[in-house]
Specification:
- By secondary structure, the chain is α+β, with helices and mostly antiparallel strands.
- Among the domains are: about 5-50 and about 650-745, Immunoglobulin-like, CATH 2.60.40; about 50-290, Beta-galactosidase, Chain A, domain 5.
- Helices cover about 30% and strands about 25% of the residues.
- The chain has a 9-stranded antiparallel beta sheet, with helices on one face.
- A hairpin with a 4-residue loop joins strand 7 and strand 8 (about 140-150).
- It is globular, with a radius of gyration of 27 Å.
- The N and C termini lie far apart (about 55 Å).
């Protein structure tokens, strides 16, 4: 173990030897706060404003569709900006928690807990729009631009305040546009699925009509809901000098009819605050947010895509704000106006963990922590004493019933795995933080309940193995011993035993979990690879990788097992050969390829995502959804850093086309922050900082001999096959490098490829 004092002494000694990264003036003693200043071993030199400006989304043509429009949000309230007509610019307004709360008997969760539209604002011009430009400024999280008409022009600035539920739009008209004005266009609070062609709900009773009113200079639109609760939009447009400013707020109260008071108070209070003061606090949050980690790639297209996803995540969700569902705060007409738990939620949250943005993950964990009773109520009554589950679709409060539940006679499509899969995200967040109290009090009891539901239905077959009855593999079909459920059951039992060992819990179910692991039937496999279920081959085009979870993200059949890579790649090849794949089929195949160390295949599949990405990096399929691009960000993480099993893997699957990569403070399991540089196709150095003092094994992907700074042999133990064990106390760090001389440990953005700045937007 190396103490903080020793680290400081060694660092001072190294600085005397003139190793570039360790100048005396930069030395900082380790601090227990993980967000405190970095030690001197790595210097970060990033001009964030300049770096992110090269990834700003730029429109020289005004967008007209949801898929291509600039978007803003604060994790709950959001807007998008697009051309509505020849004389109008549209500002959509949405809020993630505005939803129905009807009994499930009224159409199931897909209708009874559906998201609801609110409306939009328009900026109506005096003349006919003939052009314009917009710029989504990532660093400041605001949109600026100009609208040109045949009578003049209007300069725009728009942002959704990071703390207040407040949309601000400034319009500065010139010439004949002095008469431009803002208007609100409310929408009826009708489940969006009722406005699509997908399985409309018979007998759907609309909510009461909205009511327009005015209190002083503030206008209100109040929407009462049929089963209680209220949504209210308050706004005021006022001129000062040559600037017309719209301030708008949306409030939602789920059970009381007082949202109008909250929205009204927000406008009345914040209109006393100058816009520039609001901008200052807004920008401060965003500027701090970006510094939580850093990635720069020699492939500028994917570097730009990545940083837009980091912006999108914090626009779509925050701690104590909206659960990241299929659309975030940018609801549009869609058949998917809610949270889908058979893939979408899980994929959306993956990148929050590796990117060291666990505060964003909280919006998922808080839901699971605070709505456990809804999860218990989702299973049939005879199993509620020890089990829990979640349906395919929920609203923000997780109310649902399991889709085709086990234990109900005549059901043959039981969709059971959604909760265990969601809890795998929770487990990843735990492993990134090592919060044992939360593990004991929250995750362990809920994971135990989710696995108990499977245990009620396991049966011993003639072969002496344990088998699952017929369940449903998401979006494909049903069969006994579904690979989807076998993988989640196996992972769940392994994890429960692991938790008991760590927390010294003598749980009475330990023998049962051990028996499952010893006797559970093997995954069904045929000549084409993993099947859907026993007797159910993978025989038709299918977008979901539900039958491959044992490969990724569960890492049960790993590259370390003989034959596992070959079987996985055979399965992926067959899956994609049958067609019907979609965007997340490509991100899934990319991450599976990375799990087995094939970076070139990972990039090939990721590049296949490009045609699906619209001007704003939103995703277009049968309706607006946002999970696939976010999963693409995780696919990039998987190329750069993996930490499954008991070791950290640095650059485990980087494509040859990415010879230069640098990342800083990506988060690995065990609560480690990892930084590394790859230059000319070779890893140059790796820095590891421990936040929890956990055991550390690392595969640094460095040419041997591997050297250490601080220069001591007592903290690094070679284990063979490129694996090293490191002893690090909490908040200690170490540098691993190769060669005779330690290169400068400075984190800098890579030079963008020629002509590859501001790639996204409409040109």
């Amino acid at each position: 173990m190396i103490s903080n004092r020793k680290v400081l002494i060694i660092a001072l000694f190294i600085s005397a030897l003139a190793i570039p990264a360790c100048s005396k003036k930069n030395i900082v003693i380790n601090n227990s706060d993980e967000h405190a200043a970095e030690t001197s071993l790595v210097t970060v030199d990033i001009d964030w404003a300049s770096f992110l400006a090269r990834h700003d989304l730029v429109w020289t043509r005004l967008p007209t569709e949801w898929y291509e429009a600039p978007f803003l949000g604060n994790g709950l309230l959001g807007t998008q900006i697009r051309r509505k007509s020849d004389t109008s610019i549209r500002f959509d307004i949405g809020r993630s928690d505005v939803q129905e709360r009807r009994p499930l008997s009224e159409g199931g969760a897909i209708f009874a807990r559906s998201r609801l539209p609110i409306g939009h604002f328009s900026l109506d011009t005096a003349g006919k729009i003939v052009g314009g430009d917009l710029r989504l400024r990532l660093h400041d999280a605001e949109v600026t631009g100009t609208i040109k008409t045949d009578k003049g022009g209007i300069q725009l600035r728009c942002f959704v305040h990071t703390d207040e539920m407040l949309l601000i739009v400034e319009a500065k008209p010139d010439g004949g546009e002095a008469g431009c004005r803002f208007q609100f266009h409310p929408e009826e609070a009708v489940a969006p699925r009722m406005n699509t062609k997908r399985r409309l709900q018979e007998g759907y009773v609309p909510n009461p009509p909205f009511v327009l009113s005015k209190v002083g200079a503030v206008r209100l639109c109040t929407q009462n809901l049929l089963r209680g609760g209220q949504t209210a939009t308050a706004w005021r447009a006022a001129s000062k000098g040559d600037i017309l400013t719209l301030r708008a707020s949306v409030a939602h109260t789920p059970r009381q009819a007082n949202a109008y008071r909250i929205a009204l108070e927000t406008i009345q209070r914040t209109e006393r605050i100058p816009v520039n003061d609001l901008l200052s606090s807004h920008r401060r949050w965003w500027h701090n947010y970006y510094t939580e980690s850093f990635i720069s790639l020699s492939d500028t297209y994917w570097e730009s895509f990545y940083w837009i996803q980091m912006y999108k995540l914090a626009s779509a969700t925050r701690e104590n704000r909206g659960l990241l569902d299929n659309q975030g705060p940018w609801l549009q007409p869609t058949p998917w106006a809610g949270a889908w738990w058979n893939l979408n939620v899980q994929l959306s949250y993956w990148p929050t963990i590796t990117s060291n943005r666990l505060h964003l993950t909280e919006s998922l964990l808080e839901r699971l922590d605070n709505h456990t009773q809804a999860l218990i109520d989702a299973v049939p009554e005879p199993y509620r004493h020890d089990s829990a589950g979640i349906g395919r679709v929920t609203g923000q409060e997780l109310v649902s019933g399991i889709s085709y539940p086990l234990g109900v006679p005549g059901q043959d499509k039981a969709e059971v795995g959604s909760l265990p899969w969601a809890l795998h995200d929770y487990w990843l967040a735990y492993r990134a933080s090592m919060d044992d109290q939360r593990l004991r009090e929250k995750l362990f009891p809920l994971l135990k309940r989710s696995i108990n539901y499977y245990l009620h239905f396991l049966e011993t077959g003639d072969d002496g193995k344990l088998h699952l009855p017929t369940t449903y593999s998401p979006e494909y079909g049903s069969g006994p011993d579904c690979n989807y459920d076998l993988a989640l059951l196996r992972w769940g039992c392994q994890t429960l035993l692991r938790i008991c060992k760590r927390l010294k819990i003598d749980d009475p179910l330990i023998p049962k979990w051990q028996n499952v692991l010893a006797n559970l039937t093997d995954y069904p496999v045929d000549k084409n690879g993993y099947m859907i279920a026993r007797g159910v081959p993978f025989a038709k085009g299918h977008r979901h990788f539900s039958h491959l979870l044992m490969c990724y993200p569960l890492y049960l059949e790993t590259v370390e097992k003989p034959g596992a890579k070959e079987l996985a790649f055979k399965s992926v090849k067959h899956w994609h050969s049958l067609g019907s794949s979609r965007g997340y089929s490509l991100t899934g195949a990319s991450s599976i390829s990375s799990a087995y160390g094939d970076g070139n295949a990972a990039l090939k599949y990721l590049n296949g995502l490009r045609p699906y990405l619209q001007a704003s990096t939103m995703y277009k399929e049968a309706g607006p959804v946002i999970e696939t691009p976010l999963a693409g960000a995780q696919s990039i993480h998987d190329m750069l850093l993996q930490s499954w099993g008991d070791r950290i893997r640095v650059f485990p699957a980087v494509a040859d086309a990415w010879p230069n990569v640098v990342f800083h403070n990506l988060r690995a399991e065990g609560a480690f922050l990892v930084s590394a540089m790859r230059r000319d196709g070779k890893t140059r150095w790796v820095r590891i900082r421990s936040l929890a003092g956990e055991p550390c094994k690392v595969m640094p992907n460095l040419a041997e001999p591997v050297r250490v700074a601080p220069n001591t042999t007592s903290v690094l133990t070679p284990l063979g096959h490129g694996v090293f064990e490191i002893s690090l106390a909490r908040n200690d760090e170490i540098i691993l490098y190769t060669g005779d001389e330690l290169s400068q440990l400075k984190v800098l953005p890579l030079v963008p490829q020629r002509g590859q700045t501001n790639i996204f937007g409409l040109k």
